[in-house]
Amino acid sequence: MSSRAMLHPLLELLPAVSDRIAAAGHIALFLDFDGTLVPIQSDPAAPMLDTDTAETLNAVARHEGIVTTIISGRAVEDLYERIRLGNVIYAGNHGLEILSRNLNFVEPVASARSAQLERLCDGLAAEVRGIAGAMVEYKGLTAAVHYRLAAETDIAEIRKVVHTSAARHGKFFRVSAGRKIFEILPRINWHKGAAVRWIVQHLGRTHTLVIYVGDDTSDEEAFRVLPRAITIKVGDAPETRARFRLPNPAAVHEFLSWLAGWGRARPQGA
Q1: Is 219 a catalytic residue?
Q2: Identified catalytic residue from 19, 32, 52, 216
Q3: What structural domains does the chain harbor?
Q4: Percent of the chain as helix, strand, coil, to the nearest 5
Protein backbone atom coordinates (compact mmCIF):
# COMPACT_ATOMS: atom_id res chain seq x y z
CA MET A 1 0.00 0.00 0.00
CA SER A 2 1.38 3.40 -0.93
CA SER A 3 1.91 6.11 1.66
CA ARG A 4 -0.74 8.23 -0.07
CA ALA A 5 -3.28 5.42 0.20
CA MET A 6 -2.62 5.32 3.95
CA LEU A 7 -3.34 9.04 4.44
CA HIS A 8 -6.53 9.93 6.25
CA PRO A 9 -9.12 11.12 3.68
CA LEU A 10 -9.45 14.49 5.40
CA LEU A 11 -5.70 15.10 5.17
CA GLU A 12 -5.91 14.38 1.44
CA LEU A 13 -8.76 16.87 0.96
CA LEU A 14 -7.68 19.81 3.10
CA PRO A 15 -4.48 20.86 1.29
CA ALA A 16 -6.48 21.08 -1.95
CA VAL A 17 -9.27 23.28 -0.57
CA SER A 18 -8.05 25.05 2.58
CA ASP A 19 -6.53 28.08 0.80
CA ARG A 20 -9.75 28.80 -1.09
CA ILE A 21 -11.82 28.40 2.06
CA ALA A 22 -9.46 30.62 4.08
CA ALA A 23 -9.72 33.36 1.43
CA ALA A 24 -13.49 33.21 1.07
CA GLY A 25 -15.63 36.13 2.16
CA HIS A 26 -18.65 33.90 2.70
CA ILE A 27 -19.39 30.22 2.23
CA ALA A 28 -22.62 28.73 0.89
CA LEU A 29 -22.51 25.10 2.03
CA PHE A 30 -24.80 22.50 0.45
CA LEU A 31 -25.13 19.02 1.92
CA ASP A 32 -27.11 16.04 0.72
CA PHE A 33 -28.69 13.98 3.51
CA ASP A 34 -28.90 10.24 2.83
CA GLY A 35 -25.48 8.80 2.10
CA THR A 36 -23.77 12.11 2.94
CA LEU A 37 -24.78 13.18 6.44
CA VAL A 38 -26.13 9.76 7.39
CA PRO A 39 -25.36 6.26 6.06
CA ILE A 40 -27.78 4.70 3.61
CA GLN A 41 -30.15 2.32 5.38
CA SER A 42 -32.45 -0.41 4.12
CA ASP A 43 -35.52 1.32 5.54
CA PRO A 44 -35.83 4.82 3.99
CA ALA A 45 -37.77 5.98 7.07
CA ALA A 46 -34.95 5.03 9.46
CA PRO A 47 -32.06 7.50 8.89
CA MET A 48 -31.64 10.14 11.58
CA LEU A 49 -28.71 12.34 12.54
CA ASP A 50 -26.67 10.91 15.39
CA THR A 51 -25.93 13.23 18.30
CA ASP A 52 -22.34 14.03 17.29
CA THR A 53 -23.25 14.87 13.69
CA ALA A 54 -26.21 16.97 14.83
CA GLU A 55 -23.96 18.98 17.17
CA THR A 56 -21.35 19.49 14.46
CA LEU A 57 -23.94 20.50 11.87
CA ASN A 58 -25.40 22.96 14.37
CA ALA A 59 -21.94 24.48 14.93
CA VAL A 60 -21.49 24.93 11.19
CA ALA A 61 -25.00 26.33 10.72
CA ARG A 62 -24.43 28.90 13.48
CA HIS A 63 -21.15 30.09 11.94
CA GLU A 64 -21.66 33.70 10.89
CA GLY A 65 -19.70 33.24 7.68
CA ILE A 66 -21.49 30.09 6.47
CA VAL A 67 -25.01 29.66 5.10
CA THR A 68 -25.90 25.96 5.29
CA THR A 69 -28.45 24.24 3.05
CA ILE A 70 -29.53 20.61 3.29
CA ILE A 71 -30.64 19.57 -0.19
CA SER A 72 -32.30 16.19 -0.61
CA GLY A 73 -34.73 14.09 -2.56
CA ARG A 74 -36.84 13.90 0.59
CA ALA A 75 -39.86 16.16 0.96
CA VAL A 76 -38.99 19.33 2.83
CA GLU A 77 -41.18 18.46 5.85
CA ASP A 78 -39.55 15.03 6.12
CA LEU A 79 -36.11 16.62 5.87
CA TYR A 80 -36.88 19.16 8.59
CA GLU A 81 -38.16 16.48 10.97
CA ARG A 82 -34.80 14.69 10.72
CA ILE A 83 -32.66 17.79 11.36
CA ARG A 84 -34.74 20.46 13.19
CA LEU A 85 -32.16 23.25 13.09
CA GLY A 86 -33.37 26.82 12.75
CA ASN A 87 -30.31 28.28 11.02
CA VAL A 88 -30.53 25.94 8.03
CA ILE A 89 -32.14 26.23 4.59
CA TYR A 90 -34.09 23.09 3.67
CA ALA A 91 -34.29 22.22 -0.03
CA GLY A 92 -36.55 19.20 -0.49
CA ASN A 93 -37.65 17.17 -3.50
CA HIS A 94 -34.31 17.78 -5.25
CA GLY A 95 -34.65 21.53 -4.71
CA LEU A 96 -38.20 21.85 -6.06
CA GLU A 97 -39.20 23.26 -2.66
CA ILE A 98 -37.00 25.55 -0.56
CA LEU A 99 -37.81 26.66 2.96
CA SER A 100 -36.07 28.75 5.62
CA ARG A 101 -36.82 31.72 7.84
CA ASN A 102 -36.34 34.03 4.83
CA LEU A 103 -37.06 31.81 1.81
CA ASN A 104 -40.24 30.06 0.74
CA PHE A 105 -40.25 28.63 -2.78
CA VAL A 106 -42.15 25.87 -4.58
CA GLU A 107 -41.46 25.29 -8.27
CA PRO A 108 -44.83 26.16 -9.88
CA VAL A 109 -44.90 23.61 -12.71
CA ALA A 110 -44.05 20.73 -10.37
CA SER A 111 -46.73 21.95 -7.98
CA ALA A 112 -49.32 22.03 -10.77
CA ARG A 113 -48.54 18.40 -11.63
CA SER A 114 -48.76 17.13 -8.05
CA ALA A 115 -52.24 15.61 -8.39
CA GLN A 116 -51.31 13.89 -11.65
CA LEU A 117 -48.21 12.47 -9.98
CA GLU A 118 -50.29 11.15 -7.10
CA ARG A 119 -52.53 9.28 -9.55
CA LEU A 120 -49.44 7.87 -11.25
CA CYS A 121 -48.20 6.65 -7.85
CA ASP A 122 -51.53 5.05 -6.99
CA GLY A 123 -51.39 3.01 -10.18
CA LEU A 124 -47.74 2.18 -9.69
CA ALA A 125 -48.32 1.01 -6.11
CA ALA A 126 -51.00 -1.38 -7.35
CA GLU A 127 -48.62 -2.80 -9.97
CA VAL A 128 -45.74 -3.47 -7.55
CA ARG A 129 -47.92 -4.67 -4.67
CA GLY A 130 -47.01 -8.28 -5.40
CA ILE A 131 -43.25 -7.65 -5.43
CA ALA A 132 -41.81 -8.08 -1.95
CA GLY A 133 -39.55 -5.24 -0.87
CA ALA A 134 -40.75 -2.70 -3.48
CA MET A 135 -42.23 0.46 -2.02
CA VAL A 136 -43.74 3.52 -3.72
CA GLU A 137 -43.32 6.86 -1.96
CA TYR A 138 -45.32 9.88 -3.10
CA LYS A 139 -43.57 13.06 -1.96
CA GLY A 140 -45.88 15.72 -3.34
CA LEU A 141 -43.63 17.07 -6.09
CA THR A 142 -41.65 13.91 -6.84
CA ALA A 143 -42.01 10.20 -6.16
CA ALA A 144 -39.68 7.32 -5.45
CA VAL A 145 -39.80 3.57 -5.85
CA HIS A 146 -37.50 1.98 -3.28
CA TYR A 147 -36.19 -1.51 -3.91
CA ARG A 148 -33.38 -1.87 -1.37
CA LEU A 149 -35.29 -4.69 0.34
CA ALA A 150 -36.34 -6.41 -2.90
CA ALA A 151 -34.75 -9.59 -4.23
CA GLU A 152 -32.09 -9.07 -6.88
CA THR A 153 -34.14 -11.20 -9.26
CA ASP A 154 -37.08 -8.77 -9.01
CA ILE A 155 -35.20 -5.57 -9.82
CA ALA A 156 -35.57 -5.89 -13.59
CA GLU A 157 -39.34 -6.27 -13.20
CA ILE A 158 -39.51 -3.25 -10.90
CA ARG A 159 -37.53 -1.20 -13.41
CA LYS A 160 -39.86 -2.26 -16.22
CA VAL A 161 -43.00 -1.39 -14.25
CA VAL A 162 -41.65 2.03 -13.23
CA HIS A 163 -40.58 3.00 -16.74
CA THR A 164 -43.82 1.72 -18.27
CA SER A 165 -45.95 3.66 -15.79
CA ALA A 166 -43.93 6.86 -16.24
CA ALA A 167 -44.06 6.50 -20.04
CA ARG A 168 -47.84 6.82 -19.91
CA HIS A 169 -47.18 10.35 -18.62
CA GLY A 170 -43.95 10.80 -20.53
CA LYS A 171 -44.71 14.38 -21.52
CA PHE A 172 -44.83 15.38 -17.87
CA PHE A 173 -42.49 13.06 -15.91
CA ARG A 174 -39.16 11.28 -16.24
CA VAL A 175 -37.40 8.47 -14.37
CA SER A 176 -33.96 8.81 -12.81
CA ALA A 177 -32.09 5.87 -11.26
CA GLY A 178 -30.36 6.41 -7.93
CA ARG A 179 -28.95 4.19 -5.19
CA LYS A 180 -31.48 1.34 -4.92
CA ILE A 181 -34.21 3.77 -5.96
CA PHE A 182 -36.06 4.93 -9.05
CA GLU A 183 -37.05 8.60 -8.87
CA ILE A 184 -40.04 9.97 -10.79
CA LEU A 185 -39.45 13.66 -11.44
CA PRO A 186 -41.34 16.37 -13.31
CA ARG A 187 -39.96 16.90 -16.78
CA ILE A 188 -38.84 20.49 -16.28
CA ASN A 189 -35.57 22.40 -16.36
CA TRP A 190 -35.03 22.26 -12.61
CA HIS A 191 -32.69 20.11 -10.54
CA LYS A 192 -30.38 20.38 -7.54
CA GLY A 193 -27.93 22.53 -9.49
CA ALA A 194 -30.66 25.00 -10.46
CA ALA A 195 -31.79 25.13 -6.84
CA VAL A 196 -28.23 25.88 -5.68
CA ARG A 197 -27.93 28.79 -8.10
CA TRP A 198 -31.37 30.11 -7.02
CA ILE A 199 -30.40 30.00 -3.35
CA VAL A 200 -27.00 31.62 -3.88
CA GLN A 201 -28.62 34.41 -5.91
CA HIS A 202 -31.20 35.05 -3.19
CA LEU A 203 -28.58 35.15 -0.45
CA GLY A 204 -27.40 38.41 -2.01
CA ARG A 205 -23.82 38.06 -0.82
CA THR A 206 -20.71 38.85 -2.84
CA HIS A 207 -17.52 36.78 -2.94
CA THR A 208 -19.38 33.63 -1.93
CA LEU A 209 -17.59 30.30 -2.17
CA VAL A 210 -19.95 27.38 -2.85
CA ILE A 211 -19.16 24.00 -1.30
CA TYR A 212 -21.39 21.12 -2.39
CA VAL A 213 -21.16 17.64 -0.84
CA GLY A 214 -23.29 14.77 -2.15
CA ASP A 215 -23.26 11.07 -2.90
CA ASP A 216 -26.03 10.30 -5.39
CA THR A 217 -26.65 10.60 -9.12
CA SER A 218 -29.00 13.56 -8.49
CA ASP A 219 -26.03 15.49 -7.06
CA GLU A 220 -24.18 15.18 -10.37
CA GLU A 221 -26.34 17.95 -11.88
CA ALA A 222 -25.11 20.28 -9.15
CA PHE A 223 -21.51 19.22 -9.74
CA ARG A 224 -22.01 19.86 -13.47
CA VAL A 225 -23.30 23.44 -13.16
CA LEU A 226 -20.87 24.51 -10.42
CA PRO A 227 -17.45 24.44 -12.11
CA ARG A 228 -15.99 27.05 -9.73
CA ALA A 229 -17.31 25.45 -6.56
CA ILE A 230 -15.64 22.98 -4.24
CA THR A 231 -17.62 19.88 -5.18
CA ILE A 232 -17.15 16.70 -3.14
CA LYS A 233 -18.42 13.24 -4.03
CA VAL A 234 -19.11 10.91 -1.12
CA GLY A 235 -18.54 7.21 -1.70
CA ASP A 236 -16.77 5.10 -4.27
CA ALA A 237 -18.78 5.71 -7.45
CA PRO A 238 -16.33 5.17 -10.34
CA GLU A 239 -17.35 8.30 -12.26
CA THR A 240 -18.30 11.75 -11.03
CA ARG A 241 -18.19 15.40 -12.08
CA ALA A 242 -17.10 16.38 -8.57
CA ARG A 243 -13.55 17.66 -8.13
CA PHE A 244 -12.89 15.91 -4.81
CA ARG A 245 -13.94 12.83 -2.87
CA LEU A 246 -14.65 11.68 0.66
CA PRO A 247 -15.30 7.99 1.33
CA ASN A 248 -18.31 8.02 3.68
CA PRO A 249 -20.50 10.09 6.04
CA ALA A 250 -17.96 9.69 8.86
CA ALA A 251 -15.39 11.55 6.72
CA VAL A 252 -17.99 14.20 5.91
CA HIS A 253 -18.52 14.67 9.64
CA GLU A 254 -14.81 15.25 10.13
CA PHE A 255 -14.74 17.76 7.28
CA LEU A 256 -17.66 19.63 8.87
CA SER A 257 -15.89 19.62 12.23
CA TRP A 258 -12.90 21.25 10.57
CA LEU A 259 -15.11 23.71 8.67
CA ALA A 260 -16.84 24.77 11.89
CA GLY A 261 -13.53 26.33 12.95
CA TRP A 262 -13.03 28.21 9.67
CA GLY A 263 -12.05 31.82 10.28
CA ARG A 264 -11.05 31.18 13.87
CA ALA A 265 -7.91 29.08 13.43
CA ARG A 266 -5.54 28.17 10.63
CA PRO A 267 -6.38 24.58 9.56
CA GLN A 268 -3.89 21.83 10.18
CA GLY A 269 -2.26 20.62 6.99
CA ALA A 270 -2.95 23.89 5.17
Answers
A1: no
A2: 32
A3: 3-107+190-259 (3.40.50.1000), 110-186 (3.30.70.1020)
A4: 40, 20, 35
